[in-house]
């Protein structure tokens, strides 16, 4: 039989009701027992008189115990009030207790407790039962001999009974009114929450659309600049091309940060741990950032812990994103000196295993006041930072949130004028080393036949040029139908397929290739902007990966290496 799933709100309500039930049971038991002991030892009341009361109060301790053993909350709740009614009635019928000294006085309190555990119907039923108990205790008092009554005269008994009844009814009315007000307030809060959620989703969708519209021309700008930079240019031309590349990269970085922070705010940033070779992970970081640091005349150092497992389970994409943010900041704010990356393995007993990476620079550092604002979204350590160094002020905010989503954290130490050390920790799992390793291939594209599919000629030319420079044999297609026809009749080692194309888009192509008699080639989607739902749909249809434009030579080289074996 399938397990029933409850919405988070229901789970929270059940947890709240459980805590109230346990707290009420323990409080009643302990407080009443203490009062009974004080009556015996301080006031000299006979133990035979208080013993029934103490036994009744101690019976409440069974409720938390049975909940701990797995009793259903609804059954435990009903048992709590059955015990309550029984104890009040039994003690009220004892000659020495009656309408005055019995527990009838506490019935309004139990009505209030019921308001946190029952719906309105349950409150009404419990109120009627309480009124019946009051009446029975009153009748019991009136039918006793005068010398056994706790109060003189039937008239006084009736008067006190009416007062208790009014208190019970008033408590019930008050609880029901409060429940109505609470439900109204809760409905308003839910409406406001839903509106905020829809607004966040609309913002995310808008930003995704803007991303697509901006990335398409940006891909052309950066791609053509990269192709130009690899051609024979004089010094002045090369400087101008590098200016185009740097400006485009800055725009891309800001666009990525804004999109990522919107996804994090909307809880749309998935974490997908997978097997990863730890040395390859840091070798890729060194290949990417080493030349960038050297271009600025900075020493780039990487220290790799000898105890680091060869294979770990980690979301490599999100980890690289965190490292890219930290290293981008380190290089940006270090005019001279060094950048040092130190990776170590933390497997202390009693704590979760973590990959810990220190990113140290000898840059400008931060004052104590500036450091207090470093994780604020869109914040900079100082107002002059934006003008001097640029940036969106989102990188560190995103990195800390991502690290916490991966069961880690981001901390730092900084001294103004001396430098900063950021410590990134990620919760990871060590994996067994595979028996064989794929050897490094210095020429990943040799012998590969690649099909590039894109409806925009500029994007098609850039991707195809990158592939040819890396040594691949490239075929081109400008539509989904043309791509399907080529894949039906020819054999490819890899297909780069644009997700968004008019008429027959990339998802349509993925569906079509499943109808082939032979196994389709590995297909990697490329897009200027896609929702998480679209990317999940692409992967479910067989896409190996989804790459976000603009594409770069390093990304293409890394992609080819993964399919070269």
Automatic annotation (TrEMBL):
SUPFAM superfamilies: ATPase domain of HSP90 chaperone/DNA topoisomerase II/histidine kinase, CheY-like, Homodimeric domain of signal transducing histidine kinase. It is an enzyme of class 2 (transferase). It is found in: Membrane. Its EC number is 2.7.13.3. Signal peptide: none annotated. GO terms for molecular function: ATP binding; phosphorelay sensor kinase activity. Keywords: ATP-binding, Kinase, Membrane, Nucleotide-binding, Phosphoprotein, Transferase, Transmembrane, Transmembrane helix, Two-component regulatory system. PROSITE patterns: HIS_KIN (PS50109), RESPONSE_REGULATORY (PS50110). It catalyses: ATP + protein L-histidine = ADP + protein N-phospho-L-histidine. GO terms for cellular component: membrane. It comes from the Bacteria. Its main location: membrane. Residues 449-564 form the Response regulatory domain. The keyword Manganese does not apply. The chain crosses the membrane at residues 20-43, 49-67, 79-94, 100-118, 123-140, 160-182. Pfam families: HATPase_c (PF02518), HisKA (PF00512), Response_reg (PF00072). This is histidine kinase. It comes from Pontivivens nitratireducens.
